[in-house]
Amino acid sequence: MTKENPDPKQTSPSGNVTFWYDPRKRAILYQLGVLAMVGLLGYYLVSNTLANLERQNIATGFGFLEKEASFEIGESLILYSAADKYARALMVGVLNTLLVSFIGVVLTVILGTFIGIARLSTNWLVSRLAAVYIEVFQDIPVLLQLFFWYAFFYEMLPGPRQALSPFSGVFLSNRGLVFAVPQFHPTHMYMAVAFLAGCICIYFLRRWARMRQAKTGMAFPIIRVSVVILILLPLLAWLAGGAPTKMSVPEFKAFNFQGGLNVSPEFTALLLGLVLYTAAFVAEAVRAGIQAVSKGQREAAMSIGLNTNQVLQLVILPQALRVIIPPLTSQMLSLTKNSSLAVAIGYPDFVSVAGTAINQTGQAIEGVAMIMIVYLFFSLSTSAFMNWYNKKIALVER
Amino acid sequence: MKRFKLISLLVAAVFLVTAGLAVAGTLADVKAKGYISVGVNEGMVGFSKPDEKGVWRGLDVDTARAISISVFGTPDKLKFVPLTAKTRFTALQSGEIDVLTRNCTQTLGRETALGLAFAHVNYYDGQGFLVPKKLGIKSAKELDGATVCVLPGTTTELNVADFFRANGMKMKPVVIESTPELTKAFFAGRCDVLTSDASQLASHRSIARDPNDYIILPEIISKEPLAPVVRHGDDNWYDIVNFSVLALIAAEELGITSRNVDAMLKSKDPKIQRFLGVSPGNGKALGIDENWAYKIVKHVGNYGEIFERNVGVNTPLKIERGLNAQWTNGGLMYAPPFK
């Protein structure tokens, strides 16, 4: 197609038009103007803020990160005490947020997929139950659900002295779930290495199996073999390390259980609330994705002799995923962001710890900026990963 | 071009709004809008809590009413903004509220780095521990390993960590932002101990299913002078808030109560005449009406009346005057001369 030039004077490159009538130059001028205004606005906001802070004698800067935090934090993945610095306290918060978001996202995807498929079940009862689940959990605000689960745990469960003990070494009370875990032993490190080695093995095994199937048409029971490898390798490492069996068993001392692993009611309530809420949305996305695959695809797959599982795995899901991934990404992001509601039920996530730091130091602007940067980083890395995955499974037209 | 104009208009508007925030003094601002925005606790019996009719009541609320009378001559030109311990100072710094009467402890850090100014103390407090009686604990030194319920962003949160560290004990904090949620968790047994200012503990205990099931341990581990707060740098506004508190204290010392204040107008005592504005001067100096102190006592009473009405021995909180008695009775309440 050729370009139409109703007035050759206006677009002539030779420059015999006035500057104002050249749309390209004018566009550049507009953009420069907008850019300058955004810059000015930014400058004004920053300088105005600084002037106001100065006028009210409010301290500024990130120097407070080096000061002693002198407050305790309820649960932490790394060693922390009140004698540590603010920087470390904030790190504890970041890790707590990561922990609950990561476990939350994994459980949400599993539960959501399960319910989404159940929603499409031909069994009337199963599909109705899934529908009720989706409607109930989608329609109640997530903060209310969090309050409900938290109150449920501390109101319903007995105190630590009367803790329920369904199995020996496991205690359930309003202080959380406490259970025995193996006491740390160097062999555990080797077991982790063996597990990783197993994962790498499986990766190459899968490639080999796929190539063989492409060449000869013979299928390989890849899932069963993978499970065996993942169990067998760490088990061998454990036996080679002398099979250490010493356990750290929780014991009730004075006020609380000592030893073992403690899953707090705050963490459980937050995780449960977020997962149940977000899974309802994921289920809808999964249902929509599966329904988007035309019926003919299923019929064609069945007519070439694939069984129900194979139809789902090889034909339906790969096509459905393309529709599911984008809304799924946004649900993962919303779960991560909703985890900041932790502050309402006492789980020490990043917002909670940063909030305390803001209040003790008065560095509200710095604190809020850090909260924004951390969540932005979480969100951007999640969407970067999901976009990569989305591209990978996107329709390749041949 | 139209869009361009719109953008520049918007930008200009933003400039005007943000610039407007910075100039006028708080007194002029408050008079222009016709009410005072006052930050209060979101629910603490005896200090600030709405009653069943929705009217805010308590010692901190009465302090705010005294400030309203100083500025407007009536106790009701107030907009109460319930704030959590974590949000209170930001709300004040950003100008959302004009004054904070929310049992805030005066500290060096808050006066300096946070850019705040504390008026005269309206309650001398100290941090204590509330525990269920059935734990059988007699002293805070026996609390090693306990789970402790505490509000975030308070001096309490730091004091309790200090106390446990100093005594070589371990603790596990449960930190919940909203006071009602925190106390609910404590009464349900989520924590072994609730720590806060002793006055707050008395307030929380009074709402327990059976207040006799709980005791406040004898140790008071900190000094907590609680006072109204304003932004640093507005001296006129600070003076009005400060002397509104001091007027309550001075009235008690002078023996003026809400019942005898009209009779006191005829008093021959020059100190009382100056205080009530019969001989003028104080009001003009502060830039408010001459009869401000008269109206404060008339409407809300003197400090002693406020104390007994809200938190005293005849209320569910059952708090003795202690440090909050007049200096003439061995307490710390001491107002400078009103002249």
Describe the SSE topology.
The complex is a heterodimer of chains A (398) and B (339).
Chain A: H1 8-11, H2 23-55, H3 86-119, H4 124-139, H5 142-156, E1 170-173, E2 176-179, E3 181-182, H6 186-216, H7 222-240, E4 247-248, E5 251-253, E6 256-258, E7 261-263, H8 265-292, H9 295-303, H10 308-338, H11 350-361, H12 364-393
Antiparallel strand pairs in A: 1-2, 2-7, 3-4, 5-6
Helix pairs in contact in A: 3-4, 3-8, 3-10, 3-11, 4-8, 5-8, 6-7, 8-10, 9-10, 10-12, 11-12
Chain B: H1 2-22, H2 26-33, E1 36-41, E2 49-50, E3 56-57, H3 59-72, E4 78-83, H4 88-93, E5 99-105, H5 108-112, E6 116-118, E7 123-125, E8 127-132, E9 146-150, H6 155-166, E10 171-175, H7 179-187, E11 193-197, H8 198-206, E12 214-216, E13 224-231, H9 235-254, H10 261-264, H11 270-276, H12 282-286, H13 292-300, H14 303-310
Parallel strand pairs in B: 1-4, 1-5, 9-10, 9-11
Antiparallel strand pairs in B: 2-3, 5-13, 6-13, 7-13, 8-11, 8-12
Tell me the CATH topology of the domain at 86-155 and 264-393 in chain A.
MetI-like fold
Work out the largest interface and the residue count of each chain. A-B, 54 and 54 residues
Rg of chain B, alpha carbons? 22 Å
- Number of individual domains of chain B: 2
The ordered string of helix (H) and strand (E) elements of chain B is HHEEEHEHEHEEEEHEHEHEEHHHHHH
Structure description:
Chain A is mostly helical. Chain A has a domain of 200 residues: MetI-like fold, CATH 1.10.3720.10. Chain A is 66% helix and 5% strand. Chain A is built from 12 helices and 7 strands. In chain A, the strands form 3 sheets. In chain A, strands 1-2-7 form a 3-stranded antiparallel sheet. A two-stranded antiparallel ribbon of chain A has the order 3-4. In chain A, strands 5-6 form a two-stranded antiparallel ribbon. In chain A, helix 3 packs antiparallel against helix 4, helix 3 packs antiparallel against helix 10 and helix 8 crosses helix 10. The longest helix of chain A is centred in the N-terminal third of the chain and has 34 residues. Chain A starts with 7 loop residues before the first helix and ends in a 5-residue tail after the last helix. About 1% of the residues of chain A have low confidence. Chain B has 2 domains: 211 residues, 3-Layer(aba) Sandwich (D-Maltodextrin-Binding Protein, domain 2); 96 residues, D-Maltodextrin-Binding Protein, domain 2, CATH 3.40.190. Chain B is built from 14 helices and 13 strands. Chain B is globular, with a radius of gyration of 22 Å. The N and C termini of chain B lie far apart (65 Å).
